[in-house]
């Protein structure tokens, strides 16, 4: 995004044009940024040519996933619905990995029928279920076992997945036991050791610790895994104060790991691919003064963008028109929903605003629409893909009649 003659543009399209033509609130995605993110990710790890599976949970828009597929990525899914979307988007089943702690028999059946590449199991009961279904189908199914490496990713507790108190994966002792139990199974082919330690990780050191933990476990098992699935979790900078993850150092750590254990690598990035491609354009409905504070009441709400209410996540907010005059009053940007948590951001100073003007909430591509709901029976926003001067509707604005 940039200002041209004081008017904010997404690629070559003015934000005020978007609002006038398509209404607000509106999710907008930059195609050039999406492509740049994927190329950058590939380039940083090209020395060992990983299988890159986009984490569909971060953004479930089938048209966006179709573009991601065209740029060469597979899919990481955690439900039958996500698997259906990935297949509908045209992703090759041989590049689909199915993760998640609670896959039902129906979901496992569906995954096997679609001949996906890998099912990452997270408990002995789940592997038993896969083996039982595979036996009935007289098939041998490729399975990964998810290890919980007890690694603190130094991220929010709500999005930590690699510590021993988290529900994900199995501990090292159980891992060794399960490898020994299933390595000669007629219906289970142990293909992969899988890990995922959390989300929004900005430091390479937790990854280094994770790789050391994996290597330690691998030395205890007399079995050779063809693949090591390192999950995702790579973070993005939501503001100027946050440092960026050093891909170069993470790359070197993986190279060191591979020098000790020859295998193919799988990644499951989501936020790092789609997070900074998305913006949410919203209109100011009312401005309400309350003491030394101004409430900027928007037509976007927590049902449209849940992260601030759910995690206390911070998304930068910028105006669609740049003005010189700055107000030193506190500005609290809030939505119209009947919850005090329906608040996006409080800023100590902001430029002077008026009702019916537009603001833009930044970096909402990941876990924006996918966490969206119809709370307060509010329709979900329109979604747009912007490529240069072209604007394409990739999801129509929901209408009340669609869900009432």
Would you give an account of this structure?
The protein has helices at residues 15-22, 31-44, 62-70, 80-88, 105-113, 124-137, 172-182, 205-218, 247-260, 271-274, 307-311, 400-403, and strands at residues 2-4, 7-10, 13-14, 26-30, 51-55, 74-77, 96-98, 118-121, 141-146, 188-194, 227-229, 264-267, 278-290, 293-298, 317-319, 326-327, 330-334, 343-347, 350-351, 358-361, 382-387, 390-395. The model is unreliable at 158-163 (pLDDT under 50). Strand 1 (2-4) and strand 2 form a beta hairpin. Helix 8 (205-218) packs parallel to helix 9. It starts with a strand and ends with a helix. The chain has twelve helices and 22 strands. Strands 4, 13, 14, 15, 17, 18, 20, 21 and 22 form a nine-stranded mixed sheet that branches. It has an eight-stranded parallel barrel with strand order 5-6-7-8-9-10-11-12, surrounded by five helices. The chain has a three-stranded antiparallel sheet with strand order 1-2-3. It has two domains: 2-29 and 275-403, Lyase, Ornithine Decarboxylase, Chain A, domain 1; 31-273, Alanine racemase (TIM Barrel, Alpha-Beta Barrel), CATH 3.20.20. It has 404 residues and is α/β, with parallel strands linked by helices.
